[in-house]
């Protein structure tokens, strides 16, 4: 604008000069003056045109890009009707277009390059397997049980807090010897849940009436001389994607917060048969995504300023804080490993197919797994022994042939360690006679994370198609979670979904070939390993290895801590190896016995009163 103003002023001055020249200048001089003015005017006009061109061209480019984007959005909106998904408004279509360009297309290209360069389908078959049997599948779980250790001389502590942090084996010994009843334990843990839930926000529904009924039955059976095993009379919690008749199964979502599914999930049946006592339905992130649910956000007992992460948030936080002896969570991609690591407890993500999933909200049939959060690896072993087996209503479940983890001779094992392994675990196992060697898992697939997302998002969308179509995704608690991912998933073609499964098959074969050790130790929350482990169906035990000071502590000091953990990985169907190594490590250390400072943050900690 300043340049235009300058040109205008010069133009006016020139006109004034011309007029003055006509009035008083002789003809010859006037001619010279006019020619001079003309020259100046031509120069100014030329500069004006150049200036206008300089400012106009970028504007036209920007305007052209904007129109092109608007045109693309309109074209995509129009095209979506041919996919029968023309129910998105323009802002959502623009979001879909940007997500597809930035995320989907690079992954499509990588997967096609990996497995679709040769026609005919003779190589890299899909990992999707169809069972064409029309007969009733064998749902028997009559398999040999693990030979767990029987503790003797266990005494009942005087303080309830000390009882709350006992292991399953210790509590089981107290119950079996009638030093405590299941009804007493149920009261203790229900009282703790109600005491701390205002801080942790870990409970969705208390199953108090059911709990006392089951506890009474456990006590009566024991009086009759019937002992069902180490879980007899032990209270526990279930992630609230698992159906229990007569109680809400909310999936953590305000859309489904009043939902009651009158069916018994298979895993609930197994735990009931083992004599366990359900005391609460615990928080799941909304539709099993992260730690935000319709009632709030679940916190980490070791540092209540931060959140627990992962959708098995309530299961992890409750177990960590001594509110339940154990809890059941689930993982599609990270929802066992992440909250276990954050909350500083032991957890098992088992081999895919180890635990039946009927009666459980499904995200992805080829990724979903159920597993335990516990005080120790020994406790995880006891729980997985109770819940494993083929579920006749879950075609992916099977009798995984696990050996007894309590009988594994670890001195015969070769264990690798990755660059990101916690070396204390390596040194402890080495001192116990385990052969430990540097290790690297080699594979050529660069699209591991995209394969996971394509698989998971399309599967999730197939299970929540109606939810999206009628606009319930607009009610979802966090818009940049499932709503964003599932809108983007609408543009994953069937062909590229299948190519992703073929690439997944290639990944599995390469990992199998590269897995030259009996197990390996590495970071449990590295995203690449989380995606890879879930795509392969690989088991991992998460174990705490230390607790360090939090970053930026308050000036007056605090007892809050950050947990340090590692993962012990084994090949599929070799969960017993990972569990045996974890038990060996924990037999020589006490990190898993530490208690979060939820009652003792320190008087100068700003969260002290909140915890009280």
UniProtKB/TrEMBL annotation:
Residues 184-488 form the Amidase domain. Coiled coil: none annotated. This is Amidase domain-containing protein. Pfam families: Amidase (PF01425). Keywords: Signal. GO terms for molecular function: glutaminyl-tRNA synthase (glutamine-hydrolyzing) activity. InterPro entries: Amidase, Amidase_dom, AS_sf. Residues 592-612 are annotated as: Disordered. Residues 1-23 form the signal peptide. It comes from the Eukaryota.
């Amino acid at each position: 604008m300043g340049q235009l103003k300058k040109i205008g002023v010069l133009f006016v001055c020139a006109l004034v000069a011309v007029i003055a020249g006509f009035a008083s200048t002789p003809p010859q001089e006037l001619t010279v003056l006019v020619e001079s003015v003309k020259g100046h005017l031509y120069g100014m006009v030329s500069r004006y045109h150049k200036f206008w061109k300089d400012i106009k061209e970028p504007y036209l480019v920007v305007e052209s890009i904007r129109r092109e984007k608007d045109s693309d959005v309109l074209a995509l909106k129009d095209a979506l009707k041919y996919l029968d998904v023309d129910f998105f408004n323009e802002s959502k279509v623009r979001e879909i277009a940007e997500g597809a360009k930035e995320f989907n297309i690079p992954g499509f290209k990588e997967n096609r390059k990996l497995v679709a360069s040769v026609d005919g389908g003779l190589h890299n078959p899909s990992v999707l397997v169809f069972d064409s049997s029309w007969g009733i599948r064998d749902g028997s779980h009559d398999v040999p049980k693990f030979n767990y250790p029987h503790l003797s001389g266990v005494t009942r502590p005087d303080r309830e807090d000390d009882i709350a942090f006992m292991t399953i084996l210790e509590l089981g010994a107290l119950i079996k010897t009638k030093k405590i009843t299941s009804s007493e334990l149920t009261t203790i843990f229900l009282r703790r849940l109600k005491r701390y839930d205002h801080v942790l926000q870990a409970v969705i529904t208390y199953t108090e009436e059911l709990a006392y009924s089951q506890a009474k039955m456990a006590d009566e059976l024991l009086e009759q001389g019937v002992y069902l095993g180490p879980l007899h009379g032990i209270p526990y919690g279930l992630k609230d994607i698992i159906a229990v008749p007569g109680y809400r199964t909310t999936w953590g979502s305000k859309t489904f917060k009043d939902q009651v599914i009158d069916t018994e999930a298979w895993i609930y049946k197994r735990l009931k048969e083992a004599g366990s006592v359900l005391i609460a339905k615990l928080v799941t992130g909304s539709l099993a995504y992260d730690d935000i649910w319709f009632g709030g956000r679940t916190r980490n007992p070791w540092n209540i300023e931060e959140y627990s992460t992962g959708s098995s948030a309530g299961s992890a936080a409750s177990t960590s804080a001594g509110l339940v002896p154990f809890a059941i969570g689930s993982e599609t991609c990270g929802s066992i490993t992440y909250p276990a690591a954050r909350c500083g407890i032991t957890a098992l993500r088992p081999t895919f197919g180890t635990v039946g999933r009927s009666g459980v909200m499904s995200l992805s049939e080829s990724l979903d797994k159920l597993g335990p959060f516990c005080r120790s690896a020994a406790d995880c072993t006891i729980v997985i022994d109770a819940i494993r087996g083929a579920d006749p209503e879950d075609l992916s479940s099977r009798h995984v042939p696990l050996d007894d983890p309590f009988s594994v001779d670890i001195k015969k094992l070769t264990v690798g360690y990755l660059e990101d392994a916690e070396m204390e675990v390596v040194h402890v196992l080495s001192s116990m006679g385990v052969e430990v060697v540097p290790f690297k898992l080699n594979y050529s697939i660069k699209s591991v994370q995209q394969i996971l997302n394509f698989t998971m998002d399309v599967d999730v969308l197939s299970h929540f198609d109606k939810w999206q179509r009628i606009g319930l995704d607009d009610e979802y608690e966090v818009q940049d979670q499932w709503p964003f991912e599932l809108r983007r998933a609408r543009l994953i073609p069937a062909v590229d979904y299948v190519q992703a499964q073929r690439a997944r098959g290639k990944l599995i074969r390469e990992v199998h070939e590269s897995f030259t050790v009996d197990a390996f130790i590495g970071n449990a929350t590295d995203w690449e390993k989380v995606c890879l482990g879930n795509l392969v169906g690989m088991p991992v035990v998460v174990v705490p290895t230390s607790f360090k000071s939090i970053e930026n502590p308050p000036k007056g000091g605090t007892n809050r801590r950050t947990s340090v953990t590692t993962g012990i990985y084994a090949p599929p169907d070799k969960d017993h190896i990972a569990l045996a190594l974890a038990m060996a490590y924990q037999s020589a250390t006490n990190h898993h016995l530490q208690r979060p400072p939820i009652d003792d943050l320190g008087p100068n900690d700003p969260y002290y009163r909140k915890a009280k």
